[in-house]
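Appendix C. Worked example: ThuA-like domain-containing protein
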Amino acid sequence: MYSLAWLTATTATLATYIIMASSQSTIPVSKVLIFSATREFRHDSIPTAIEAMKAKGSQYGIQFDNTEDNTLFSDGRIDQYDALVFLSNTGEVLDDAGQAAFQKYINDGGNFVGIHSASDCLRNSTFFEKELGAHFDYHPEITNATVNVLDHSHPFTSQLPDRWEVFDEMYNFKSDPRSVGAVVVLSADESTYTDPGPRNFNQGTPHPTAWYQEHGAGVQDGGVSGRSFYTSLGHTNETWKDEIYLSHVMGGISWVLQSNTTSFINSSALVGSGTGSTSTSSLSPSSTTGTSPSGTDTPSNNNASPSIAWVSAPFLLAALGATLSALSL
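Step 2, the predicted output written as structure tokens:
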């Protein structure tokens, strides 16, 4: 007969192996490209922003790559991504070929996130303006201000207070994002700061600060309806270290990834999760890969292979049961 000590040790070993095997199973991970090229003013918070998003990647089941190389657009390598994040861009960051590739990516179902001065790039592109929602006009000096949260039902607003105190630039826009179908979720309370600028009031009311589009410019252009999210906040390094702000940004990214228009969820999609060229030699720094947060349903992904660890789990459970039975003898 086996000794009680041996049976107890064996039981503990088997239980540990099952836990390790389960944790090693393949979980679908979405791929997101952060594009931070600038041609005019450059925010010194860009490296901090990239680092912050990558650090959160594992919590949200996102693999982030980042680049400032616009040739990734023209040679089709963006097709492997489930979403593009335009981060604090300024000026004409894409040439004609790059803009055409961006438009094709969006038309094929790609998702888009714009952050802060992403609204101040590609100013002559009507398609980009529709995908974004509105182009930047001007802002007063950076200031303490209050932002009203108009809808708490989305992952990009669910963790925000009703009245959010921020220290940031209060952007004004050349048009009303609601005119292209965007839904405004954050609004600047203009009574909480001073704006001496040439107000044209073309952006509508209440003052838009962040918004989303269930269907971006792709569907307006006769393509597939990927999602779009934009927030004008994100100027300082300190902002990118704030957990509340990061929940806002990461909530926006995770929301667009649920569009059902990329291969992360839809196996017949034209773009996303490795459907394009997989070369990332020009991306820097290296990608961060993670798993989904606890309690979050992860969509099935036909590109993911089953882990051998899961195959062995039933056998291990049976062995554990037998050992427990022996312990009871």
